[in-house]
Amino acid sequence: MGEVWAAVDARMARRVAVKLLSSGGGGNPQALLREARVAGALNHPGVVTVHDLGHEPDGTVFVVMELVAGRDLARVLREDGRVTVRDAVDWSGQCAHALVAAHEAGIVHRDLKPANVLLTPAGTIKVLDFGIARYTAATTRSSQVVGTPAYIAPERFGGQPGDARVDLYALGCILYELISGQPPFTAPDPMALMYAHLHQDPAPLGAHRADLPPGVEPLVAELLAKDPTHRPATAREVHQRLHALTGPAERPDRSSVVPDPTAGPGNGAGAGVSPYEALAAWNLDAAAPADTLIHHTGPGHERDTRLHEPRPPRGLSRRGAVLLALGTATAAGTALAVRFRGSDADDESSPRKRWEFTTGGEITTAPVAVDNTVYVAGQDGNLYAVDAASGARRWVYRTGGKRLTDVDVTDGIVYVQSNPLEAGNQAGTLHAVETRNGTAVWSVPFMSYGGAPTVVDDVCYTGGAVTENGAGRTGYTGRYHALDARTGAERWRFEADGGFYDRPAVVNGVVYLGCLDGNVYALDAATGRQRWAFRTGSAVQNTLTVDGAVYAASYDANVYAIDAASGTMRWAYGTGGPAGSLAVEGDILVVDSGKYVHAVNRAPGTRRWTWAAPDFVGPATLANGLVYIGSRDGRLYGIEITAGIKEWAFKTRGSIVSAPAVTREGIYVTSRDKRLYAIAHQ
Predict the structure, then answer these.
(1) Torsion over CA of 569, 573, 576 and 579, rounded to 10 degrees?
(2) 348-351, long-range: CB within 8 Å, 24+ apart, which pairs?
């Protein structure tokens, strides 16, 4: 929602951070100024100090704060993974102590998350951005709930601002993530995440860690209570209970985390070095995290090794020579200047890009390549057909909606679902479009939104959810539909307590699909009648069938092998975090889970290898002996499937959250940078 600059206050000769925030498209910048004044009045060592504030003629608001050396907890988790239980409890206790000062001053944060909690080199915690969530809510027109979905308390999804206990819920999410390495809930889209916060219980912490001291798990469960009245009453109570779990302890020296910008180029304190020179000499980029092979147990191997070391710091990029003068920023005349460093270098081992195609919006859907054409659904509401050889556009079909789903291409027809701008406010629409020229075959409006169509034996299967508000009902009901693929006429529908976002597996007249209610359902393909249901511990993201078994990935951190005929479990494999999408090649089953890619020996359900990416990964495609998988770090990785060795990485300009398409001619992958990329085989 803005930018943060490392800077120097020229008058006071001190390091500061300057946050620049848009006025929210016409909102009142005075709202943030009022909030910042209140937050600036807080006098607590665990709260980042606000030095100054103001706004520019264009409405941009700036807040000048102390610059804290160190890393935010989101970066700690991203680079280091889960931390020791003692550190997790200690840091959360410090955070709770900062909340005591804020809450007793009448200030509720409302957007507490790891990225807003800073860890200093001394091991102390500082919380920032008090008041900004309320400012954003007041100035953002498009949403009633402002915050980060993974940490939002259930009561806020009803549009209520919530009291101080929303911060305690968020603190429980942070403590859970520090201990387990994963947030308590993850989901493929905001609606699914909302459902999890409202209706599901996270996997017990004891399932992630065996070294939990007594008292930790019950406290986390209380903090994550759905009903705010069941949470601890105050932040002071939480701080006291966390402090009792650790007791006094000498904090470790973490001075190696980030160099002190005031230090000189040598080992000394840098006496006589001006603040400008010191800041210019400070490399603001941290070394990229190494890719790590966590547990390779292939034939004849058992090792734990680095694939490559972090690259040494680079010199100044083309931006590094820029000296940005923010000028006279306030009525008091605070002059600010900053040098910054960066790098635009791609990975050393990268396949060749053949072409790229730009759409009008983010792309979070998977491309489909059929007959020398690549079909992709953009979040601008358009379905594109792109020549696979040249990247030229063949046609575009405008759905009139937004938030398009993944597409399916069968017998000369492309199927895609467009969803309403606001969930539940209007019907979504299922479209059938000619592959030859992009003209509509038929379109069917219906209230289920979110699911992706799949066509098998002239039947189009698609699902989603229906919002049910009013008349004493809240939440949403899952619906799954079977329609005639040629006409769009509905054959049957099936309802459950959770949404359907899974593509089904249809084999021998049975439809197998997962649901957010935690069940895997087996339905009669002709009638939609339920044959059996297998219950997991949380939402099911994906199912597939091979050789008489149904494999299901669940957010309860397990992959299940279920007998297709009886619905009984054959085995369960623990992924350590919410299991995402499944793919299979031969006897190897691949599943994504957070930052990890797991390869499982399919028949016995045992681990083959686990590979850690620098950031969260998405669904995989298996072909040519490789696992093709994208990551939130903007890279598509090629991983050798039998041993889990990274072969190459291709860098895009945005996050990759969908599976790539792989053909003999090349690889096609979409990115949230609005582009479809065509890549040559390495």
Answers:
(1) -70
(2) 349/647, 349/648, 349/649, 350/648, 350/649, 350/650, 350/651, 351/638, 351/648, 351/650, 351/667, 351/679, 351/680, 351/681, 351/682
Distance, CA of 633 to CA of 657 (rounded, Å): 10
Active-site residue identified among 52, 90, 111, 502: 111
Burial zone of 440 (CB within 10 Å; 0-12 exposed, 13-18 middle, 19+ buried)? exposed
Residue (of 28, 21, 24) closest to 5 by Cα position: 21
> Does residue 652 surpass a pLDDT of 60?
yes
Query: 279-314, pLDDT tens digit by residue?
Result: 222 222 222 233 333 333 333 322 222 222 223 233
- pLDDT tens, position by position, 33-67: 666 666 677 778 898 888 888 877 777 788 888 88
- Tokens (6 digits) for 253: 């020296």
Residue 377 CA to residue 522 CA, distance in Å, equals 29
Residue type for position 456: V
Cα–Cα dist 308/293, whole Å: 10
User: Is residue 240 pLDDT above 50, yes or no?
Assistant: yes
Judge whether 356 and 671 are in contact, CB under 8 Å: no
End-to-end C-alpha distance for the chain, whole angstroms: 38
CA distances from residue 48 to 45, 64, 171, 396, 425 in whole angstroms, order as listed? 8, 10, 17, 50, 41
Q: How does residue 128 score in pLDDT terms, banded at 50, 70 and 90?
A: confident
Q: Is 347 a catalytic residue?
A: no
Whether this model's pTM surpasses 0.85: no
Instruction: Write the CB contacts of 184 (distance below 8 Å, at least 6 apart in sequence).
Output: 172, 173, 176, 177, 202, 203, 224
Tokens of 191: 């609606």
Position 321 pLDDT exceeds 90:
no
| H, E, C per residue of 531-542 | EEEEECCCCEEE
Architecture of domain 2-246: Orthogonal Bundle (1.10)
Domain boundaries, the chain: 2-246
Distances (CA, A) of 379 to 147, 401, 415: 22, 9, 16
Beta strand spans in 143-284 (E): none
Question: Quick one: CA dihedral 377, 380, 381, 387, positive or negative?
Answer: negative
Residues paired with residue 17 on neighbouring β-strands, in sequence order: 6, 65
